[in-house]
Amino acid sequence: MTIQDTELLLQFRDPETKEKAFTAIIRKYQEKLYWHIRRMVVEHEDANDVLQNVFIRVWNGLENFREDSQLYTWLYRIATNECLSYLDQQKRKSTVSLDESESGLSNKVVADKHFDPNKLEWKLQLAIQQLPEKQRVVFTLRYYDEMPYEEMSRVLDTSEGALKASYHHAVKKIEDYILNH
Amino acid sequence: MNGINDISEELRSLSELVATISRQTPYRVADDYFTDLPSRVQLRIKTQHKPLAFNVPEGFFEGFAEGVLARIKTEAATLAGSASVPGEKNVPGSADVRIKGVDAELTALSPLLAQLRPLATYRLPEGYFEELSPILTIARDANPYTVPEEYFHQLPAEIKEQLLEPQEGEESTVAKGHVGEKPAKVVAFGGRRTNWWKYSAAAAVAGLILTIGWLRLHVTGGEHRGGPGGIPASLAKVSDQELQNFLEDQDTTLAQQTNSTADLEFNDGDVRTLLGDIPDGELKQYLEEHGGANDMATN
Question: Which residue is closest to A59 within chain B, CA to CA?
Answer without folding.
Answer: B45
